[in-house]
Design brief:
The protein contains 29 helices and 19 strands. By secondary structure, the chain is mainly alpha-helical. Strand 7 and strand 8 form a beta hairpin.
Length: 673
């Protein structure tokens, strides 16, 4: 319907795109005083993605510009601000849903959007658990303690005294310069020359080598080594000539050893990373009910026994998914897929719930499942719940026809398969809603009604064919004809352009490594984005000097240059921004924010497009070239495509080759008798 509206609007506003014209019509309808000329200038100045957001939001909330509702997304907020600065008095800038202050609203919560400060307060309040000191269920800001117990313990450990500079009762330390007791805010920290890197910076510590800056302090503390003098592994903070030695060997009692295991401690505390992780995990899981401790024991073992303790400690302390797990266990219910599905439906919590599900499945706490099919089930439940008057037909179609076919697929489902299923259900909803508006039941629909509905909308309405075929077979409707949409003939690229792009992927080091590997697999072997992102880190097989990649049933031998690129990509391990450790994923193209999942096909496609590598023409040229050289059965076995698909590419290649042979050559001289 939105596409049809865009088309009608585009005809009304000469020189504007359909999307711009639709936004202009919405602006004029909401604010008549703006005038069409000014509305066109405002719409033309907007970014294309922002126009789509504005159009969709105003279609659902026509009064969004004047109501001040906090539901407005950032693009609509910027539009309102622009109109207000342009002198349109009737617009109302949205205020925070929680504090009612006019601020940028970037975070969505239940009921609206909130500012960054309120979102932080809500996130803080979400870290609820049982305080290990007072045993009351409260927000736990630090070390398993509520705010009151933490402040009480801090006061006991370090009494507060009046600061000599500001006079506030704070934890003060004696200044080295003048001997006054100053708080951290007032204590001067003059820059000095670092004894290690010789740079002028604020002093983090004073070692036998002299004052050290923050960077050198972290580097030495995080990289302990055997002392040449005593042989004990410690942070080497002193020097014997030009040779670094530990603190005790250089005449100081600073040894930076862990108080638990007597090994080198971490730079952030008095414990080593492993002991700090064990202590944090004991507090974290010890606050849970006994039954849930038993359920989550495999996860705790995986967390504390892994080879990346710094990343695990960072997850326990900082991750939103760790706070979510503590909140769920405080309710006393077992962790399940159904409980996490319920959290996924809450605004702003889907990403944390999805990551928590991944780590629990990886640890064996939850059974693995097809997440694409599960996402379709959640979407179907939302659609059916939003249309209770159509629930009988939609439930029978979705759960009796679409989902069984998804579960019965031979190959693993992909994000595109999930989009296919959701699009079919959406088309069924559109048709039934249209028929209901004309007082027509499903069994009363005639061919003329279906033809009229198809003619009024976009070509995507032909997706309803699947629903109508099912309805006729189930006896819910008479047989109705919806023609298949003609698939466009694949348009490839010339051999010269294809080989030029392939050489860029194999040789141009300025391109990102992931782009080079993915582009080469598209241009050389005609692989889809969904197949590329699902490749595992162990996908490459080495036989002698040759590298082989298993795309179908038969391993495909790779050129040496591509073998080297895939080997380099498989051995790469990006650095975690929170822990600083190198994280290893089992995927060749891991998700940038979740190493347990692979990158989405849509993001990989967009990434390749940014570097001038378009998947459809490149894949078509590669497959047509392969179809000329290989019979369909061998093509399907080598490249992992269906046999019918391989036969279609064979016919397309034959037609293209025949057309090429029948084309007269302009440079060839005519042969005369």
């Amino acid at each position: 319907m939105a596409v049809a509206q865009d088309q009608r609007s585009g005809g009304a506003a000469a020189g504007l795109s359909p999307l711009q014209a639709a936004v202009v019509e919405q602006l004029v309808a909401s604010l008549p005083e703006i005038g069409r000329a000014r509305a066109e200038r405002v719409a033309s100045a907007m970014h294309g993605a922002a126009r789509r957001v504005v159009r969709d939001h105003l279609a659902q909330h026509p009064d969004a510009l004047v109501s001040g509702s906090s539901l407005a997304p950032p693009a609509v907020q910027r539009l309102i601000q622009t109109l207000a600065e342009d002198g349109i008095d009737r617009v109302q800038v949205p205020a925070c849903h929680r504090c009612r202050r006019v601020r940028p609203l970037t975070n969505a919560v239940e009921g609206g959007r909130v500012c960054a400060g309120c979102f932080g307060a809500l996130t803080y309040a979400a870290a609820v658990g049982v305080c290990r000191e007072c045993a009351r269920t409260r927000p736990l800001p630090s070390q398993g303690l509520c705010a009151a117990c933490y402040a009480r313990g801090l006061t006991k450990r370090t009494p507060k005294t009046p600061c000599a500079e500001c006079g506030q009762q704070r934890v003060c330390r004696r200044s080295r310069t003048d001997g006054r007791s100053l708080c951290d805010s007032c204590r001067p920290r003059p820059a000095e020359t670092c004894g290690l890197c010789r740079a002028s910076d604020q002093v983090m510590a004073r070692w036998p080598v002299g004052p050290v800056c923050r960077n050198c302090y972290a580097r030495v503390r995080n990289n302990p080594a055997p002392c040449p003098a005593c042989g004990v592994t410690r942070a080497l903070i002193g020097r014997d000539g030009n040779e670094p030695i530990c603190g005790p060997c250089s005449g100081t009692d600073i040894d930076y050893l862990c108080k638990r295991c007597a090994g080198p401690s971490d730079s952030t505390g008095s414990l080593c990373v492993s002991c700090a992780l064990t202590a944090q995990a004991e507090r974290y899981f010890g606050a849970m009910p006994a039954a849930l401790q038993v359920q989550l024991q495999p996860f705790q073992d995986r967390l504390t026994g892994g080879d990346q303790p710094r990343a695990a400690l960072s997850w326990l302390r900082l991750s939103a998914s760790a706070r979510l797990l503590a909140e769920l266990t405080s309710r006393g219910k077992r962790i399940s897929h159904e409980g996490l599905d319920a959290v996924c439906r809450e605004p702003g919590r889907g990403q944390a719930a999805g990551y928590l599900r991944d780590v629990l499945v990886d640890a064996g706490v939850l059974a693995p499942r097809d997440e694409h099919t599960a996402s379709v089930e959640r979407r179907f439940a939302e659609i059916i719940g939003a249309h209770p008057d159509l629930a009988a037909h939609l439930h029978a179609y979705g759960y009796g026809s679409v989902l069984p076919r998804l579960r019965g697929r031979q190959r693993p489902s992909t994000e595109y398969v999930a989009q296919w299923a959701t699009a079919r259900m959406g088309s069924a909803v559109e048709l039934l809603t249209w028929a209901r508006g004309r007082s027509l039941a499903l069994d009363q629909l005639a061919q003329d009604d279906v033809d009229q509905w198809l003619a009024e909308g976009a070509s995507t309405r032909h997706n309803v064919r699947d629903f109508l075929v099912w309805a006729a077979e189930d006896g819910r409707a008479q047989p109705l004809l919806v023609p298949h949409r003609d698939k466009p003939v694949p348009i490839g690229m010339g051999d010269d352009a294809r080989w030029e792009l392939l050489q860029r992927c194999l040789r141009e080091e300025a391109l990102p490594l992931e782009v080079r590997v993915a582009g080469a697999l598209v241009l050389l072997h005609g692989q889809q984005a969904t197949r590329i992102v699902a490749l595992g880190r162990a996908c490459l097989r080495q036989r002698g000097e040759n590298g082989y990649l298993l795309l179908g049933e038969i391993p495909v031998m790779l050129p040496p240059a591509l073998t080297r690129l895939i080997t380099d990509l498989a051995s790469a391990a990006p650095e975690d921004p929170d822990s600083g450790e190198r994280t290893i994923s089992r995927w060749l193209f891991p998700h940038p924010h979740n190493r347990l999942r692979h990158r989405t096909a849509a993001s990989l496609t967009a990434w390749l497009n940014e570097h001038g590598i378009t998947i459809k023409p490149g894949r078509a040229a590669a497959l047509m070239n392969a179809a000329v050289e290989l019979p369909p059965a061998k093509l399907a076995a080598k490249l992992g495509v269906h046999l019918l698909t391989a036969e279609q590419w064979r016919r397309l290649a034959a037609r293209a080759w025949t057309a090429y042979l029948q084309t007269p050559m302009a440079d060839e001289p005519c042969q005369t008798g």
